Structures are given as C-alpha cells and as structure tokens.
Amino acid sequence: MRIAVLGSGGREHALLWRLSRDPEVDAAFAFPGNGGTSNNVPVDPMDPAAVRRACEAKAIDLLVVGPERPLAAGIVDAFADHRTRVVGPTRSAARLESSKIWAKGFMIRHGIPTAAYRLVGSCGEFEAFAAERGGPAVLKADGLAGGKGVGVCRSREEIDRAWARIVGMRPAGERFLAEELLIGWELSVHVLTDGAAWCLLPTSQDHKPLLDGDRGPNTGGMGAFSPVPACARALAVRIADEIVGPTLAGLADEGIRYCGFLYFGLIITEGGPRVLEYNVRLGDPETQVLLPALESSLSAALVACLDEDLPPEALRFDGRSRVGVVLASAGYPGSPETGKRIDGMEAASESALLFHAGTERREGRIHTAGGRVLTVVGEGEDLGEAIERAYAACETIRFDGVQYRNDIGRRNTG
After folding, report:
1. So what CATH class is 321-414?
2. Tens of pLDDT along 48-107?
3. Strand pairing partners for 334?
4. How many DSSP H helices and E strands does the chain contain?
5. Where are the domains of the chain?
C-alpha cells in the first residue's frame, strides 16, 4: 500500500512516522511535510486539484488528512470519484468543527451534555448574557480559528478585549457563541469510527495556554500527556454512553456518515462530562503522545473504516505513559521569529521522540519555520518517568528564543 499524509505539522509527522511502521505500507509520503519528514511532495493542502495530481503522480492508495481546514473545505468530497481513498469526514460531517454554532445546535438536538449558550452579534449582547449568568462567560468564534477563537471573560475589561480580538479575526456580520463558563478539568477523548462502530484511543490532556500554570494567551497547544490517571473506568463508560454513542447516532439520524477520527474536547464537571467542542481529526499535540502507544496496524484500521468494517479491537495500545512538550519560537502565538538554527536534536533523540512541526531543512541543517517548532515526547512506565525523560531531552535542544512550558503533566503526578 502507498500512503500519503496531508499536512505539515507535528500531528502529520507523527501520523507518517507511525504509518511507515505498518507492514502493509510499501511507501509513505508527506504532502507537503516539514523539515523532519521524508518523501516530501510540495503541494498546497487547500488545493484539491493539486492534491489529486500529487496522488496520481505517486500512485497513492490511501490519503490521510491531518488538519481541519482541508476537511472543512471538502477535500474528502473532492476525491469521491478518484482511485485514491481518503480517510476523513466529508464537508457536511466536518461542520462539527467548522461551525461551532451548527455543532451546538446538533448537541442540543441530540441531548448531548454541553454548556448553556446564546448567539450574540454585539459586545452589548455578550455582556448582557454574562450579566444574566451572574459570573464569567466564554466567547467563541463560529468558524475555524486555529485554537485562538475563544475568550474566557471574568470582567468587563476582559469582555471588551475578547470581543475586539475575536471579532477582528472573523468576517463582518458573523454571529458568535456566548457560553457559560463550565468549571472542572479538561479531557481529550479520540475515537476512530466508520460511522457505526468505533474504537476508543487512550485518554489525553492538552495544555492550551502559553505559560506555566495555564497563564498567558491561548495557543494551538503547548503540550499533552497520555493516558490521564484521573479518568477512571466509570467515567470512561459514562463518556461513551452519554457523549460518544449519542454523537455518532445523531450523525446517522441526520443522514451524515462519519468516517475517520473524531476528537471530543470535554470538561469534567461536578455534574459529569460536558462537551466543550468537537474536532474532526486527531488533536495536535495529542497525536504525538497517542500514536507511539499504538501496537496494532494503523493503516489496516483506516482501511477497515473506509470499508465500513471496523472491528472493536482494531486499535491496541501498550498502556505506557507519554508526555509531549512543545518547543515554540519567540513571539508565538503572535508573530513568531523564524529562521533560527536548531541544535541538539541528535542527542535528544537518543532518549525521546521528536516530532517536527514548524521546521525546514536548509543546507543539511534544521531551522525554525513556524510558531510551534517541535514536540518532544518522553516515554515511561508511569507519568513521572515520562515527564523526566521529556524534559531531559528538551534541555539538550537549542535555538534562539526557544520557549516551552515546564509543567506539562506535573499536576497529575501526585
């Protein structure tokens, strides 16, 4: 089987790394990849015609779509008549992520637990919602925003700042979601589904804010760990019964077949699990700590999804702990500095896995080329050992302006 992974981030590097190890895979390509991937093919993921031509040129049997934007734009639909099979939801199914307003309506229609909300079109309407709730409120952009379209507001000043920032990112006339602020701890739950059957991946937890202690601006994700010790068996069963099952059943009831990975961004409150958001692909950086645990064939499971014949045991994991720490450029998440030479990766790779994101290769050396540069993954028999190995490797990697959090997973060790 000849496989290509569409995208250029750390998630896509991890997908390519794992798929390349499957016995069914004869050749694997990155479309377009980054400085750490091999067999890179320069193609714009947002240009379906160019992606089709690249698949034809490389005789690709299976295309795995990493990022959300091509899915939301209908890359899967564009291959409906093509020999290359594409893993991922159609444009219609991708509305779970591409429109938070549509997703919220879907949750309400199917009784899936989530936050109370209202649609707002002005700062005054958002402020009125917060006043009626008598506490903090959350503002969310409707469309894709790269993890930066959410504002948590606890004061009038934060409301004004969030409104100005988020509205400035979006098209004129768009409406926004105002939500109650749910209190609890967050959990990332991923499934692979053929539209009916589904396989659960290990639990994980992302760290969105830039700085230690969950301070600073939100980012695309500064690190993750898996599995999450706090997610007991009883909670996992409740999530399956109250959220995963009803979501897939609801899609089927609305005539939408979902094929691929579905990521549930949850918050665990005193009243139980609640859905914060859906993502129609694997998370980043969660993928980098999930896929190294996979012991079975990923490519075989993906083909089974396409064949609508996914067995419950299609994915098997080793149960060990992984911690991924994102090394970011100076200026991220605003205006990251790029073009910096990266040193120390060879030594770091002796004790940890390195997944590239914002990197490029110049004259045989790796340089920074984006905001999130690398994910450094430590592995261990428990979370503490994985944390120790991840941070020991981080200390050996150097580039001008490097920044990373020092507390990924630590609050869960004691």
Report:
1. alpha beta
2. 999 999 999 999 999 999 999 999 999 999 999 999 999 999 999 999 999 999 999 999
3. none
4. 13, 21
5. 2-88, 116-180, 185-319, 321-414
